[in-house]
């Protein structure tokens, strides 16, 4: 695990890289002992410093192929800020990104907040409604 000072310094490096649109080497090259908890703490620190509003969350690297390509063994998650959102009618400005790519990810909208960690699955995933077909 990293110290809080290390996490802050690494968060600063990532923030500058994002601002300048300048790629940096993976942090784990310099800090091979970095844990997933360290990485998420760094991410959260930068999210809290942004002026924007969190409008959602995402899961990435959900396929084994993408995980292998990135050298990880589990999906990751992150925050979606209001300034990251694009509508389907809005072209993406490639200049905003270092290496623009598209990764297909499954997403869904919740009708309400989930009730909590201990909620039974049946509470979180209601039965699908049957469609009613009219006979002609």
Short overview:
This protein is 34% helix and 10% strand. The chain is of the alpha+beta class and 136 residues long. α1 packs across α3.
Question: Which descriptors apply to this entry?
Answer:
5 helices; 136 residues; alpha+beta
- Order of SSEs: HHHEHEH
Shape descriptor reads: globular
Query: Helices and strands: which structural class?
Result: alpha+beta
Largest sheet composition = 2 strands, antiparallel
Helix content: 25-40%
Strand order in the largest sheet: 1-2
Could you explain the architecture of this structure?
This protein is of the alpha+beta class and 136 residues long. Helix content is 34%, strand content 10%. It has five helices and two strands, in the order αααβαβα. A two-stranded antiparallel ribbon has the order 1-2. The longest helix has 17 residues, at 4-20. The chain is globular. The model has no long low-confidence stretch (mean pLDDT 83).
Topology, pairings included?
Layout: H1 4-20, H2 27-30, H3 36-49, E1 54-60, H4 64-70, E2 76-81, H5 121-124
Antiparallel strand pairs: 1-2
């Amino acid at each position: 695990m990293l110290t809080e000072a290390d996490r802050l310094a690494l968060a600063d490096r990532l923030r500058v890289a994002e601002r300048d649109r300048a790629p940096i080497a993976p942090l784990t090259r310099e800090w091979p002992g970095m844990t997933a908890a360290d990485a998420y703490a760094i991410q959260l620190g930068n999210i809290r410093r942004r002026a924007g509003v969190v409008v959602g969350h995402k899961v990435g690297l959900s396929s084994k192929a993408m995980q292998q390509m990135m050298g990880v063994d589990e999906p990751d998650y992150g925050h979606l800020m209001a300034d990251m959102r694009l509508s389907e009618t809005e072209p993406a400005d490639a200049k905003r990104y270092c290496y623009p790519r598209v990764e297909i990810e499954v997403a869904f909208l919740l009708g309400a907040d989930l009730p909590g960690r201990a909620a039974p699955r049946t509470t979180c995933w209601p039965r699908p409604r049957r469609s009613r077909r009219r006979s002609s």
